[in-house]
Design brief:
With about 375 residues, this protein is mainly α. The protein is built from 15 helices and two strands. Helices cover about 45% and strands about 0% of the residues. α5 crosses α7.
């Protein structure tokens, strides 16, 4: 693995460390330095150590550049209220953020309503947490009208929700602005049945790397998926009429009970947990990576982690030491949140996350 610059990390610490201590936030950058040391034990996995350039976002943007000093505190409080009522808010927000950032960048275009908007694309079937974002935005508009973007709300709320579920907190650089358009035709999110090579190529097209891939798939520690995304692995893998040979035989039997063959049109499409060991607790644990090593991953793309040299080493490392994953997750989430952001005079600050300001029916 190429050496990651601890000088750069230490410089970042000197700039923001005191603010982080004052606010009792997790001091992430020393953790990233530790993550570097731990992941380097892989020997040859080349992973980034910082946000992708150019970095246009700002640490504590709302404290420095606006009168909404407590924006992140307000959002965190609302997420806590939502999470206390429904812990599934964590995987819903994670998927919503992924579906936003990986298409046109982190511009909240996924939140826009419309007959042909991104949320109508087949890949975005049954996305959740829209109402949660609406609730947070309503509070922010009452406290700081026209100041906090929907894109920043989505990134901050996701950070706070995953922290409540056992993932690390991490600094979300802010100052994003909201996109003006949303088109289902632009949604190119891949199938969960792709190979690790295809998954890596897709991540690289977004400026991410193999360590980001192996790390961000760990978000499948929480949440559910439809049986329709798993049936081919259980009954007719690649047209063979047999189950996926990479699946543990006992796990195939277990999953077939939850996901029976679809024999008629309109048959139910049940939901199954991506990590049965986490299940309805919606907690981040190392069991996701342990299950991949045991050939008990639900989605094919997860099991594919074993078939690449780098991804297999990452999986083994994270299964052996969950703290390594938690530290890497913090950086990879920050990197995902930096994809093609709008800042400055680009886009706008929506008053309602479902509509551009021009189309807002309540303007």
């Amino acid at each position: 693995m190429k050496a990651r610059s601890t000088d750069t990390i230490q410089a970042s610490i000197s700039i923001v460390g005191e603010k982080m201590r004052r606010e009792n936030l997790v001091v992430l950058f020393p953790l990233l330095a530790l993550a570097l040391l731990s992941v380097c034990r892989l020997g040859f996995v080349d992973g980034a150590t910082s946000l992708q350039p150019p970095v246009k976002l700002v640490w504590h943007y709302y404290k420095i550049h606006t009168t909404c000093d407590e924006a992140e505190v307000y959002i965190r409080h609302q997420v806590q209220l939502l999470w206390d009522k429904d812990k599934s808010i964590t995987p819903k927000l994670l998927r919503l953020l992924y579906s936003d950032c990986f298409v046109n960048g982190c511009d909240a275009s996924i939140l826009l309503d419309g007959p042909k908007s991104e949320k109508t694309a087949p890949q975005n079937r049954e996305l959740g947490a829209f109402v949660a974002i609406d609730k947070i935005k309503t509070v922010m508009e009452k406290r700081c009208p026209g100041v906090v973007s929907c894109a920043d709300i989505l990134n901050l709320a996701t950070r706070d929700a995953v922290h409540l579920a056992g993932a690390p907190s991490y600094p979300v650089f802010t100052g994003r602005r909201d996109g003006m358009t949303s088109s289902a035709a632009s949604v190119d999110l891949p199938s969960p049945s792709i190979s690790w090579e295809q998954a890596l190529a897709y991540f690289k097209s977004r400026g991410l790397d193999v360590l980001d891939l192996g790390t961000l798939l760990g978000a499948h520690s929480v949440g559910r998926t439809h049986c329709s995304y798993v049936l081919d692995r259980l009954y007719n893998f690649n047209g063979t009429g047999k189950p996926d040979p990479s699946m543990d035989a006992s796990f195939v039997t277990e999953m077939r009970k939850l996901c029976p063959k679809r024999l008629k049109k309109g048959q139910a499409d049940p939901l199954v947990f991506l990590d049965p060991e986490s299940g309805s607790n919606y907690k981040f644990t190392q069991s996701y990576y342990s299950r991949v090593l045991s050939h008990k991953a639900v989605l094919e793309v997860d099991q594919q982690l074993l078939f690449g040299n780098d991804t297999a080493q990452i999986t083994e490392e994270f299964a052996a030491g969950f703290e390594y994953f938690r530290k890497s997750f913090a950086l990879s989430m920050s990197r995902m949140g930096n994809i093609k952001v709008l800042t400055g005079n680009q886009g706008e600050i929506r008053r309602n996350c479902r509509f551009t300001n021009k189309d807002n029916p309540n303007k």
